[in-house]
């Protein structure tokens, strides 16, 4: 009697533990959808509005899971490992291929088509970022695995009030400044304003990891060749751009010196009105619009090609391949990405540009727009913006390698070309490995199908 | 029921029952042995719970990790067995070697911290006004969230506005940009670790010092030993068990330093100068989807910590003494 009770208890315990461990509850509960994302209060509020409308229209409840930005990737990976993938979730460009190859992301090409979403009215870059043809990501021919949450064109900007006071002409919104001409302006505005013998106003103050891209590209350099197999950071064009970039600080002294130039500081110095030229992303508008000087956007200064360049980022929203309600999940994605009311909330919060092209054009043409040259964001989005070098490769280890040892170059104690020649083989080895991994994963995926 | 861990009363009761059973020599004896067996079963059931927990949550993950370290695995999909290849790769992985060296450098903070903690404990052992206030102040960092502390120190180390450099400027020293300078970033982290751990070590030392028998100190004093001699010959050896405990636990903890590094130097510091072994492992596993490779590094780190701890136990055994 006792024995059997005991055995029963142990067995019951094991059964409970076993089922808990093995349950294949992919996609959460069957009477609703789960949506996992990261972001601030503005985004939360905007998405709640879109989700409420979605629930009203379809009768499907949505459970929202918010994560803080630093933990999002880890939390998503944990939910995948635990077979509890949310129905709808944010997806980074750089993770898309891995998630598709592991069968985690649903192919939403046909479902989006059936819902009659006008993809032509969404930025090509935003949609194509989530297309993948099994080999290359970002191509217009690939199958669709997500829609953009937003796209982030990284524009260049300036303190108009400061330039006016210094008697410098406002930069032309259509004709980019050449590096040499720009440097002259930088020298002109780098001054000691209070006469205490120390410079307290600078031309610019840039962060190599986030701002070098434009300089390299407009000088005819790039990180890789077109099919992303060769690392090309050891070209003269690339080296010249990096050298020009670091010379601004170490030779010309038109930026705060290295001790003063931690990223946070130049950002705050710009906001304090101590820096003339500084990059501006759409997410900066909410803060910059409150500053007590006028700022505006301009094309990035150009190197030898004369063509301006800028990077544009994106975050996507995808659907779990194991979702119990795939059709509703895809519909939710379209609400989040393109719903007009939700878009309006996000635009009013000044944290992104509109996803819909027609809305964006109206937004840029508003008479009292702030910044006045909002069109620059749109030009980047549809014309001269490029993806970050590692956005479409299988992991970013090869790309991060460039930054790890770059400090001596930034400090001016090491020439750019020497450093780039040394780091190229290491980056190449990592890129080779990432391409191998991508090929292997794609092959496995093909076998699984 | 012979286990010494059994509460004394149960043991006595069982013994009494067994005695009774023998005296009566009756078939009832069978009954008591049935009771005995049943009790043993229940005991096993209770023991089974922690054992089950150990198997499920420790042994299984460890074995799983060991297997994962022999595979190519991105943490999402299927694992592909590749034998020792990950271990061969890490032999030639300069970044891994660098992160191991950085981790060893961080261990420097332990002797510094212990010496300071002991000195502080000796000071706190005197009767001073406001003693409790000081003790509390030194203990505050121990109970603070590590994330908050890391952010605080990140500000303190700011080259421009940081508290540290402001203080140095007051005494005429032009401080470096601590966390952006490959030479100074590691010492900066060590200083923070020492500061954070001081209160805990001090508290344990204080308890150990107060436990030193007064009679020993008085006897030494009568024999003419000075303060320094008393400290060296009596106090120091008497607190050795605490020192041993602190060294062992702190090496294990410091070898796994991660949160401070990730918050204060998100990319691993200038020229990877602050990246700890665990930081490097985390980066490979969660940023670069090299879960299999990262696991092999974790196994190597685990084995190294185990060996160091083993050596410490050996050394301690040789040096240990017994107070009669």
UniProtKB/TrEMBL annotation, chain A:
Q: Which UniProt keywords apply?
A: Sugar transport, Transport
Indicate yes or no for the key word Transport. Answer: yes
Q: InterPro entries, from UniProt?
A: Bact_solute-bd_prot1, SBP
Record Gene3D superfamilies: Periplasmic binding protein-like II
Short name of any one Pfam family annotated for the protein? SBP_bac_1
Record has Transferase as a keyword: no
How is this protein named in the record? Answer: Multiple sugar transport system substrate-binding protein
Automatic annotation (TrEMBL), chain B:
Q: Which PROSITE patterns match?
A: ABC_TM1 (PS50928)
Q: Chief subcellular site?
A: membrane
Q: How does it sit in the membrane?
A: Multi-pass membrane protein
| The entry's keywords | Cell membrane, Membrane, Sugar transport, Transmembrane, Transmembrane helix, Transport
Superkingdom per UniProt:
Bacteria
Report the residue ranges that make up the ABC transmembrane type-1 domain in this protein: 99-312
Q: Which family does the record claim for this protein?
A: Belongs to the binding-protein-dependent transport system permease family.
Protein name according to UniProt: Multiple sugar transport system permease protein
